[in-house]
Design brief:
The complex is a heterodimer of chains A (about 425) and B (about 150).
Chain A (H helix, E strand, L loop, with lengths): L6 H5 L3 H25 L9 H31 L6 H25 L2 H27 L6 H27 L8 H33 L6 H22 L5 H25 L8 H25 L3 H37 L8 H4 L2 H23 L3 H33 L9
Chain B lengths: L1 H25 L3 H34 L5 H24 L3 H33 L2 H13 L3
Helix pairs in contact in B: 1-2, 1-4, 2-3, 2-5, 3-4
The chains are: A mainly alpha (about 425), B mainly alpha (about 150).
């Protein structure tokens, strides 16, 4: 009736697809720490080449890698989309993506026009390819959940972000005249941070908060309309902003209000958990949502006062928001997948989740991550702290890299030496 | 929506019992943990039996397919049953860390399974089953015991 490659397992992609994106994301995180060590507080000046290089290391190298890991895993599980030949697709995406990201970082840092062209080809080709594949599969779904609709909206944003990026690299590479460069840059920035990163986190949270922590579901009004509202707001502002850039002031206030509401609601949901035990992942979520609140408040404040410190705080806390939530997901997903795949393959000796990554190990990462954020905030006022922040960033992502390698080795070891139950009920 | 309402409520009741057992184990209260775990496992297994003996056959008869979503659900029931067995062993041996670790896997597996049922399968049952069949199936499910 069912084989060891049960139907449930067939829906999930091979574990290597998810592991590889987490791995490359963590390595880019280590690179980000090293770059901060060299760039120091120059990264706080948003217009400097150092800031642009670091931002893309974090948003492209780190966040986009993690989000691909999440999408490859979550699309089948929570949206019911089965991607055919996931390993082939992951290869087609990952290698050009890594090369493209590195080309772009060099291009920014050394202003080499042909490197912008190479980055545009590699990144544009690979990201647009996977975005279209995922969108095509999502659109075909007969039954949509709030998460699948949200992922659809986030992927549309990602597609636009890349198209805008192609316009900018075209300009920097000397192919386009770049009449709308400033406006396109503003739209690229907002759609990337809010339309893609934030919207994807929100869509996934509609299901994982309930699934991991056993909370009441989000109100229908929020889960059904928030993603679409965010997308429409951003797309409309992008179009109007080409001619009236001031529209972003109003749009940013609306965005801050919507995202503050979301953060408060999710924090409340976490207090309504049926499982009262608090592990590191709950704290990562709280920290991430708290950071989103601070980031939104400082973003609105900068609209009314041109203060470098407040502006910098809004960047630091936005990064803390996105990374804290990635870590929260990571400490659930990696142990669960390792256990789930081995267990489904029939191994008696499949390691339990705590054997893959112990809750105390996750807790230690939480402290490192907290210290990293504290060091960044301090470095805004006392520049010498930037060195501590840089080292802590390397330690934080190094910690993560080690956990992925450990989980991978444990997985391989169990497959090689583990006792297997042969399920051959046909 | 009578199928959805009844079955979803059963999921929520099982969640509450599961969380109570997990908390008791975390507190080292093994007597209470055993009591709550028994309530959870009995109610979960009865819920599975209700689905496998009444609801799934009714759905399969109506749609003419026994290869679709019900097949996936049956397979996932087997996975959950396997974990219930392991949880019982950890409880018996009073191995706190093992029990709490298994709880993590169980909750993700179970919640993922429940979501599929609540968002897809129950909704489909409520949509495709004729009203009379729906009421009969619900009545029959209520009488299923372990």
């Amino acid at each position: 009736m069912f084989s060891q490659n049960g139907l449930s397992l067939d829906q999930a992609p091979p574990i290597s697809v998810v592991f590889r994106f987490f791995f490359s994301g963590a390595l880019f995180g280590i690179l980000a720490g090293i770059l901060i060590l060299f760039f120091q507080t120059a990264v706080f000046d948003a217009h400097s080449k150092e800031a642009v290089t670091l931002t893309h290391t974090l948003t492209l190298g780190v966040m986009l890698s993690f989000m691909f890991a999440a999408l490859f895993q979550m699309l089948p599980v929570i949206a019911g989309v089965t991607l055919t030949s996931p390993v082939k697709k992951a290869n087609l995406l990952q290698y050009p993506f890594i090369l493209g990201t590195i080309s772009l970082l060099f291009a920014f840092n050394h202003s080499v026009p042909w490197l912008f062209g190479a980055a545009a080809l590699l990144l544009g080709g690979s990201i647009l390819f996977i975005t279209l594949v995922m969108l095509k599969n999502l659109i075909k779904l007969p039954n949509h959940s709030s998460s699948s609709k949200g992922m659809l909206a986030a992927l549309i944003s990602l597609g636009i972000v890349i198209l805008l990026a192609l316009y900018m690299t075209g300009t920097l590479g000397g192919v386009l005249d770049g009449v709308y460069y400033t406006q396109v840059k503003a739209a690229h920035y907002s759609l990337g941070l809010f339309g893609w990163i934030t919207l994807l986190i929100i869509s996934i949270s509609f299901q994982v908060i309930e699934m991991f922590y056993v909370t009441p579901a989000y109100p229908k009004l929020v889960s059904k309309y928030l993603p679409l509202t965010l997308l429409l707001l951003l797309v409309t502002t992008t179009a109007i902003g080409l001619f009236t850039p001031e529209i972003w002031y109003i749009s940013n206030i609306l965005l801050a209000l919507l995202l503050t509401g979301y953060a408060l609601l999710t924090l409340k949901r976490l207090t309504q958990r049926k499982r009262p035990l608090t592990d590191a992942t709950v704290w990562f979520w709280r920290l991430g949502l708290g950071s989103l609140l601070v980031s939104m408040l400082s973003m609105v404040l900068t609209l009314f006062m041109d203060d470098m410190f407040i502006k910098t705080l809004s960047y630091i806390f936005f990064s803390s928001f996105a990374l804290s939530i990635v870590f929260a997901m990571f400490y659930k997903i990696i142990p669960f997948l390792t256990w789930f795949h081995l267990n489904s393959q029939g191994y008696f000796t499949a390691p339990m989740m705590h054997e893959v990554i112990h809750p105390k190990t996750a807790m230690k990462h939480l402290y490192i991550h907290l210290a990293t954020i504290a060091a960044f905030v301090l470095s805004v006022f006392i520049p010498a702290f930037i060195f501590i922040a840089a080292v802590l960033t390397v330690v934080s992502f190094g910690w993560m890299t080690y956990q992925i390698i450990h989980a991978h080795l444990l997985y391989k070891k169990t497959q090689e030496t583990g006792e297997k139950f042969e399920m051959n009920i046909a | 929506m009578i199928i959805s309402q009844f079955m979803t409520q059963e999921h929520r009741d099982c969640d509450t019992e599961f969380a109570a057992a997990e908390q008791a184990v975390a507190n080292g209260n093994w007597v209470e943990a055993e009591e709550k775990f028994l309530a959870f496992s009995n109610d979960t297994l009865r819920h599975f039996k209700r689905e496998e003996e009444e609801l799934f056959p009714a759905f399969e008869a109506q749609t003419g397919s026994s290869e679709g979503p019900t097949q996936v659900m049956r397979y996932e029931h087997e996975q959950v049953k396997g974990l219930i067995g392991k949880l019982a062993e950890a409880l018996e041996a009073q191995e706190k860390d093992a029990y709490l670790s298994l709880c993590e896997s169980m909750m993700i597996l179970l919640q993922q399974h429940n979501m599929k049922e609540e968002q897809m399968l129950y909704a489909m049952c409520d949509r495709v089953l004729p009203p009379e069949t729906k009421e009969n199936t619900l009545e029959k499910m209520k009488h299923v015991e372990l």
